[in-house]
Task: inverse folding
């Protein structure tokens, strides 16, 4: 093991020599079946020459099965996924684990320490730098060490994100649904909304998938905070995936009640401001809006009626992402609206009617 890496928490050695073949290996160490390890793995150095280390927890079950990675904070200010990965790694019972979990709660450590989205090294985006390359930029070198050691050895993966600062997303999955293995993973996560597409070049999910590690992105909430309801819902999705792929065989695959897959040619759009000013958002994340319904208004500091700009829904759909910071320049995004099929819309309306009725009965 290199001097930059430290491993703790190993358990007893396996007795079966054949089981040794199922060890999870990385440059500097190995975790054998029945063992777990908390690692601080060196991926770069600071201006002072001190190591930059990322935390990694590896849990290798006693039983054979797939190797699954869970990653978060490729953008350093996106915190919800950190808690999802930590709870899976350290709070769940893995005594009957079939396979291996590779948990990377904070990939962008420099950004996390600075509470910034990008690497505070020439402002580079770690999630546009995969699979990385030695001898290239600092971001690509970091990405390369993460990718080759902890992503490529896996069979599938889930990468957790939030919206950027000043916006928030309802929980949804982004996945290349043209790839059957990715589609199986996306459906297993059991979100209501899946946005189909391979993703931009350099993103972890696209590059991992192209390296034969089917991977999806889970978007959930906003930056700079833990949002407990979204974290719990994401944990349900992880449990469903582990059940689908036989990693946690005591768990059950979860059906969300309704689901819509938004393809490239479906109705979806970011509504953008046509005027600068202060936004009064009328509908929030996850709202179903009708064509022509007012989503928000934009006013100047004097609220002069002649200057009020009204933003209406161009079609009936679901608000997946929405502005949180109530000030805009012309062209700034206001909300992400996606269309729903009539059957999906009916299922959503029935579910919400049932939820409202149950809430009234409890009052």
Result:
């Amino acid at each position: 093991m290199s001097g930059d890496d430290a491993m703790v928490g190993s358990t007893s050695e396996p007795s079966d020599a054949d089981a040794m073949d199922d060890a999870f290996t990385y440059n500097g160490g190995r975790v054998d079946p029945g063992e777990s390890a908390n690692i601080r793995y060196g991926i770069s150095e600071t201006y002072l020459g001190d190591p930059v280390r990322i935390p990694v927890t590896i849990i290798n079950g006693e039983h054979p099965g797939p190797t699954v990675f869970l990653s978060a904070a490729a953008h350093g200010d996106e915190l919800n996924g950190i808690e999802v990965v930590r709870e899976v790694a350290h709070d769940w019972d893995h005594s009957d684990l079939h396979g291996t979990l590779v948990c990377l709660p904070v990939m962008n450590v420099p950004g996390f320490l600075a509470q910034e989205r990008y690497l505070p090294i020439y402002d580079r985006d770690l999630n546009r730098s995969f699979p990385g390359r030695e001898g290239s930029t600092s971001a690509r070198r970091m990405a390369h060490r993460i990718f080759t050691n902890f992503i490529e050895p896996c069979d599938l993966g889930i990468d957790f994100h939030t919206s950027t600062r000043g916006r928030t997303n309802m929980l949804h999955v982004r996945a290349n649904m043209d790839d059957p293995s990715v589609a199986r993973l996306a459906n297993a996560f059991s979100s209501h909304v899946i946005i189909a597409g391979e993703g931009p070049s350099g993103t972890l999910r696209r590059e991992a998938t192209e390296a034969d590690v089917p991977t999806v992105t889970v978007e959930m909430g906003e930056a700079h905070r833990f949002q407990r309801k979204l974290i719990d819902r994401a944990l349900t999705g992880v449990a469903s995936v582990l059940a689908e792929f036989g990693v946690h065989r005591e768990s059950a695959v979860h059906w969300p009640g309704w689901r819509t897959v938004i393809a490239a040619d479906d109705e979806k759009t970011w509504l953008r401001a046509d005027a600068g000013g202060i936004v009064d958002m009328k509908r929030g994340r996850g709202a179903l809006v009708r064509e022509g319904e007012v989503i928000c208004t934009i006013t100047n500091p004097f609220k002069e009626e002649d200057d009020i700009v009204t933003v209406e829904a161009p079609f009936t759909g679901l608000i997946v992402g929405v502005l949180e910071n109530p000030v805009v320049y012309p062209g700034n995004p206001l909300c992400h609206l996606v269309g729903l099929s009539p059957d999906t819309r009916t299922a959503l309306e029935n579910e919400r009617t049932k939820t409202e009725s149950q809430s009234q009965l409890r009052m």
Q: What stands out?
A: DSSP finds seven helices and 20 strands in the chain. The first helix runs from residue 80 to 90. Residues 6-20 have pLDDT under 50 and may be disordered. Helices lie at 80-90, 109-114, 138-151, 180-189, 204-210, 228-244, 342-362.
